[in-house]
Amino acid sequence: MTAHGPAAVIVLAAGEGTRMRTATPKMLNEVCGRPMLGHVLAAASDLRPQRLILVVSDLRGQVAGYAREHWPEADLVVQERRGSWGTGHAVRMVVESVGVIHGTVIVLFSDTPMLRSTTLARLAAEHEAAGAAVTVLTSQAPDPTGYGRIIRNEDGQVSGIVEEADATEEQRALAEISSGMFAFDGELLADAVKRVPPARATGEEYLTEVPAILRADGHLVGSAFCPDFDEIQGVNDQAQLARARRVLNERLLACCMAAGVTIVDPASTWIGVDVRIEPGARICPATQLEGRTVIGAGATVGPGCLLRDTTVGAGARVLQAVCEEAVIEAGAMVGPFAHLRAGCRAPGSSSQQGSERGPSAHPPSAASASTWQRKES
């Protein structure tokens, strides 16, 4: 991998995701304040690839619109349905659209929000260190049902990937599975993907056929192991989406606590990826922090709070409150049972003039919070 990262990262986002049963495309369902696709693109961008390519089903659709707004650096490629489909077909559309990509090409799915950029960096590094034609990202599955199994020869090298429908009983007992994500030599990929045969049952072209094609050509097929099985799991329904939210939320809270933030009850505390909490802050139970909320050092938020795009100054106290696009100054006290609407400012202790129920007193309602703002202006 060069100093600028792999030659390209391709993210496949043309699937329909009908099992999610929402009007929102599957990959745009949010996990901790960011669409699943956004998590994958963020992990890919951390690699600093020379090209970031997103495969979509329609340039006028919601997925393409999201990419243009939030990831304008991504090249969009349409996977047109021309009697075929599948992951192999999607990558073939990329080759036909942008041409042969020279260097390491990583292929990812848009519904794997738990995937870490460090795992992708290790995949690329191990691929290039081995000089492999293709390197598959594998993991150990507690229950491998539904996954392609990794077949190894006597030397421990990957000899193939067998889909469950085609596996023998002995092969189905294997626990090492293919994530379906790969690092490729771009030139070899461009040639091999044109030779992927359509599956007998569905007529789809599967990218998992490419390793076998390259191995038959005499090239090395490598593997990189992901010890955290959660990372490589795709999200296909609401139950899996809820679990992904829990896993990512736990990661975010762990980072906060490691930095010196007190999280009294992690099980009832939810934060988004863009929330910033300074060391020394205290987050009490049943609290949800969303958007670009910022919590200052020494501030206490909760229990029972929902803050969205709100700034809380150092040493402030917020109790049983809903605050949206508000500013709570240092030392202020807000709540209980307060609602601060967009644009509202709660003055801090430095703004008080000695009155017991001055501007920083507990707001009984949103109306009083708005009154404070008018008095201060």
List the helices and strands and how they pair.
Elements: E1 8-12, E2 30-31, E3 34-35, H1 36-45, E4 51-56, H2 62-70, E5 75-78, H3 87-98, E6 104-109, H4 117-130, E7 134-140, E8 149-152, E9 158-162, H5 169-172, E10 176-185, H6 186-192, H7 210-216, E11 221-226, H8 238-258, E12 262-263, E13 269-271, E14 276-277, E15 282-283, E16 287-290, E17 294-295, E18 300-301, E19 305-308, E20 311-312, E21 317-318, E22 321-324, E23 327-328, E24 333-334, E25 338-340, E26 345-346, H9 366-376
Parallel strand pairs: 1-4, 1-6, 4-5, 7-11, 12-15, 13-16, 14-17, 15-18, 16-19, 17-20, 18-21, 19-22, 20-23, 21-24, 22-25, 23-26
Antiparallel strand pairs: 2-3, 6-10, 7-10, 8-9
Written overview of the protein:
The chain folds into two domains: 225 residues, Spore Coat Polysaccharide Biosynthesis Protein SpsA, Chain A (Alpha-Beta Complex); 118 residues, Hexapeptide repeat proteins (UDP N-Acetylglucosamine Acyltransferase, domain 1). The C terminus is likely disordered. With 377 residues, it is an alpha/beta fold. The chain contains nine helices and 26 strands. It has a seven-stranded mixed sheet, with helices on both faces. Strands 12-15-18-21-24 form a five-stranded parallel sheet, covered by helices on one side. Strands 13-16-19-22-25 form a five-stranded parallel sheet. The protein is elongated, with a radius of gyration of 25 Å. Strand 8 and strand 9 form a beta hairpin. It starts with 7 loop residues before the first strand and ends with a helix.
